[in-house]
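FIELD: query
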Amino acid sequence: MNEPMNETLLRVKNLSVSFPSPKGEVTAVKNVSLAMGKEKIGIVGESGSGKSVTGRAILRLLPSYARIEADQIVYQGHDLQRCSEKEMRRIRGMGISMVMQDPKYSLNPVRTVGKQISEAYTIHHQVSKDEAKVQTLKMLEAVRIRNPEQVYRLYPHEVSGGMGQRIMIAMMLIPDPGLLIADEPTSALDVTVQLQVLAILDDLVSERGMGLIFISHDLELVSSFCDRIIIMYGGRIMEIIEAAKLQNSRHPYTRGLLNCLPKIDGDRTQLPVLERDDAWLGDDNHNLTG
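FIELD: result
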């Protein structure tokens, strides 16, 4: 397990998550270990590789029938496995926030954008409604929304996808967390808006001295944005590698993902089919590092 260069914010050791099914228990995450400080870490893998489940398990946001086991899940000295639900509600927001994939499913459709962001602030800070509105407008400006007063009064269905994602980021950052988990925050956006949202995240994380876990399918995007990358397959970590050294990776799965990316200046031969090996799912894979 690669260690962070600075003070450790989050440490996870041997996290496993399983769900019941008609055919028996299904393991979604197996023996995942990571440690991170105030840095940007990307988690990349195919659909079903366990990326989102890992993020949700850290915050205990999985359904009650999910079985979560770990030797250790510690955030800034808080043992998240031993925290009560009341303590977890405080940690969710001021400690760790999570931006979900699609704002139209995460925002309340019958409440204005401003009221929802203000509520996220007042839950963690004992302030008046007027002060909460002031802070909300400042946060909308911070995520580069023009006319924040107008957007404050809008309902979720009245905003675009890109603006909705910025609103979600504002809502998750207004409690001033130390760590943000962003679960594919740009997957439903066009390339131009993707870059705008990433620039906002990058600036806010740097300015606030936060840690970021960026979950994505897009290996190239993550490699250009994050400091380190965790490659997942079949619920296991295949490799943890510095983003700057990604092209030098020797793991066959990482090489396969890289080779499947089309290149403008490449030849016109067919892209290779990603090959998989059941041997990668052995119990020792979580110890692989870059």
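FIELD: remark
The CA atoms of residues 228 and 242 lie 4 Å apart.
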